[in-house]
C-alpha cells in the first residue's frame, strides 16, 4: 500500500515488506503491521498474518500501551502553554493530597520523580481498573522510592497522576480531553480507548512451542493515561508527523521540540538514549529516534520519528513478547533513509538582509580559538567553532536587540553585541565570555588585558 503523495521505489517497498515479514516470522507474532510516513504522509504500509488471506493493514487497530504516554504529555504541555500551570510547579499545587511530596510536573513527565515503576499488586495490566478506584490504590503506601530529580526511574503511576491533573484542570475526563484536543484536530479517528473493529486480538505465544493463548484486554481505569489506547499504523503516522513538526491546533513546533529534548539523565549503562517530556529518545547508527515503545498483554508497539530524515515509522504486533517492534521501526526508517535519502530544499537567499546584522557575521575569537557567526532566517544567528571541537549554538532574536540561545551549551544564555560610542561593534558578550575580532588584539575588550609586547616567537 502506498500514498499518492510520493511513490517509493519497488526495491525499497520490497525491502520494507521483507523486514516486516521477517519480524512476524522470527518474532512468532500472530500478526504484524509496519508503516512509514515521509514529510507528513504515509508512503508505505504492509502486514503479515498467521492466517492466510487475513493480513492486517494500516487501518487495523492494535493496543499501543505506553505510546499513550506521549498523548498524555502533550495534554500537559498544552496546559502549560495556556498558562494554567508551570512545569516547575509541585504536583501538590494543583492536585493536593496525593502523598508524593514536592515532585514537580516536569519530573513526572520525564520519569525523574522517583516514583515506583508499577502500581501495587495485583498486576495492573491484567486486572480491571476497578481494582484501583482511587489514586491511593494506584500509588500504594510508599510510592516514592528515590529522591526526586536524581535519576531516571520509569513510572507508570506517575502518568496516572498526570492524567488526574489534566482532569482536574480541564474539568473533564482524560478521554474526553484527549479526543477534543488531540485526536479530532489531527484526524486520528481510529485511535480510541476501547477496540473498534477491525482490531487485532491479543495473544501470548508459548516460549517453547508454536502455541498461542488469548490475553485479556482490560480497561485500565485510572491507569489509562499510562497505556490505555488502541490505534492504527495510519493514525500513528499522523501523530509521528506531529511529533516531528508540531501543529498549532494542538501544540506549537517549539513545545514539541521541547518534548523531544532530554529532560532526565538516562539510567546507568543506557547512554544510547534518554527521555524528554513524554518522549523516548534513542541514538544509534548516526540517527536520533524520538517517539515511544509500548506493550500490554497481547501487544507490542513502537513509533519512531527521525526529524532529520523527515521519516516516521510504526511497528505493531499482537503478541505479548517476541517481536522487537522498537528495533523494527528504527530499521524501517533506516531502509528508506538509506535507499532514498531526503532531497534537500533548494538554497535560497534571505528575503532581506539587515546590514547591522551582516556586520556581525564572520570570524570571532574566544581568546585564540576561532569561531564563526552566520546569519540565519528571522534575524537568528548560528555561532560555531571554526574547527570541529567547541561549543555550537543557534540563537533567536529578542526584541531588545539581544539573542537567546536555543540549543547546545548556550541554551537560554544571552548573546549581545557590545558597541563603542561611535556605534561600531567592539565585541560579543556571550554569557560573560568575550569574543573579539582578532585574537588578543591590543586595545580590544579582553578581560585581564593583553601583554604589552604582543605576540612573539620563542
From TrEMBL:
Domain Beta-lactamase-related: 22-336
UniProt-listed SUPFAM superfamilies: beta-lactamase/transpeptidase-like
Organism, scientific name: Streptomyces niveus
GO molecular function, one term: hydrolase activity
Domain DUF7586: 353-437
Origin superkingdom: Bacteria
Swiss-Prot/TrEMBL keywords: Hydrolase
Name assigned to this protein: Serine hydrolase
InterPro entries linked to this entry: AmpC-like, Beta-lactam-related, Beta-lactam/transpept-like, DUF7586
Amino acid at each position: 500500500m502506498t500514498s499518492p503523495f510520493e511513490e517509493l521505489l519497488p526495491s525499497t517497498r520490497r525491502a520494507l515488506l521483507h523486514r516486516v515479514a521477517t519480524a512476524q516470522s522470527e518474532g512468532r507474532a500472530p500478526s504484524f503491521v509496519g508503516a512509514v510516513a515521509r514529510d507528513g504522509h504515509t508512503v508505505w504500509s504492509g502486514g503479515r498474518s498467521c492466517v492466510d488471506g487475513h493480513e492486517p493493514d494500516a487501518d487495523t487497530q492494535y493496543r499501543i500501551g505506553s505510546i499513550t504516554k506521549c498523548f498524555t504529555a502533550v495534554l500537559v504541555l498544552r496546559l502549560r502553554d495556556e498558562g494554567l500551570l508551570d512545569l516547575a510547579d509541585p504536583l501538590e499545587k494543583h492536585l493536593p493530597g496525593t502523598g508524593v511530596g514536592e515532585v514537580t510536573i516536569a519530573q513526572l513527565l520525564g520519569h525523574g520523580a522517583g516514583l515506583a515503576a508499577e502500581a501495587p499488586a495485583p498486576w495492573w495490566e491484567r486486572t480491571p481498573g476497578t481494582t484501583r478506584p482511587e489514586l491511593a490504590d494506584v500509588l500504594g503506601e510508599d510510592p516514592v522510592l528515590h529522591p526526586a530529580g536524581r535519576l531516571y526511574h520509569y513510572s507508570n503511576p506517575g502518568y496516572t497522576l498526570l492524567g488526574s491533573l489534566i482532569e482536574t484542570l480541564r474539568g473533564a475526563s482524560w478521554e474526553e480531553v484527549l479526543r477534543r484536543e488531540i485526536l479530532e484536530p489531527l484526524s486520528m479517528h481510529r485511535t480510541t480507548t476501547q477496540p473498534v473493529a477491525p482490531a487485532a486480538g491479543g495473544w501470548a505465544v508459548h516460549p517453547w512451542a508454536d502455541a498461542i493463548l488469548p490475553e485479556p484486554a482490560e480497561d485500565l481505569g485510572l491507569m489509562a493515561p499510562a497505556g490505555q489506547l488502541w490505534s492504527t499504523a495510519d493514525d500513528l503516522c499522523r501523530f509521528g508527523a506531529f511529533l516531528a513538526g508540531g501543529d498549532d491546533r494542538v501544540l506549537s513546533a517549539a513545545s514539541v521540540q521541547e518534548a523531544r529534548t532530554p529532560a532526565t539523565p538516562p539510567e546507568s549503562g543506557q547512554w544510547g538514549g534518554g527521555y524528554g517530556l513524554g518522549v523516548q529518545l534513542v541514538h544509534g547508527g548516526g540517527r536520533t529516534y524520538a517517539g515511544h515503545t509500548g506493550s500490554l498483554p497481547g501487544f507490542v508497539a513502537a513509533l519512531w520519528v527521525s526529524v532529520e530524515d523527515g521519516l516516521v515509522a510504526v511497528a505493531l504486533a499482537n503478541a505479548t513478547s517476541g517481536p522487537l517492534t522498537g528495533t523494527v521501526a528504527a530499521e524501517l526508517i533506516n531502509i528508506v533513509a538509506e535507499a532514498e535519502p531526503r532531497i534537500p530544499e533548494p538554497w535560497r537567499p534571505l528575503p532581506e538582509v539587515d546590514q547591522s546584522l551582516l556586520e556581525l557575521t564572520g570570524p570571532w575569537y574566544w581568546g585564540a580559538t576561532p569561531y564563526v557567526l552566520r546569519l540565519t532566517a528571522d534575524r537568528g544567528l548560528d555561532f560555531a567553532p571554526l574547527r570541529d571541537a567547541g561549543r555550537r549554538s543557534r540563537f533567536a532574536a529578542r526584541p531588545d536587540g539581544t539573542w537567546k540561545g536555543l540549543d547546545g551549551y548556550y541554551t537560554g544564555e544571552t548573546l549581545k553585541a557590545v558597541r563603542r560610542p561611535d556605534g561600531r561593534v567592539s565585541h560579543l558578550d556571550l554569557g560573560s565570555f568575550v569574543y573579539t575580532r582578532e585574537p588578543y588584539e591590543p586595545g580590544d575588550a579582553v578581560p585581564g588585558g593583553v601583554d604589552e609586547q604582543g605576540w612573539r616567537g620563542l
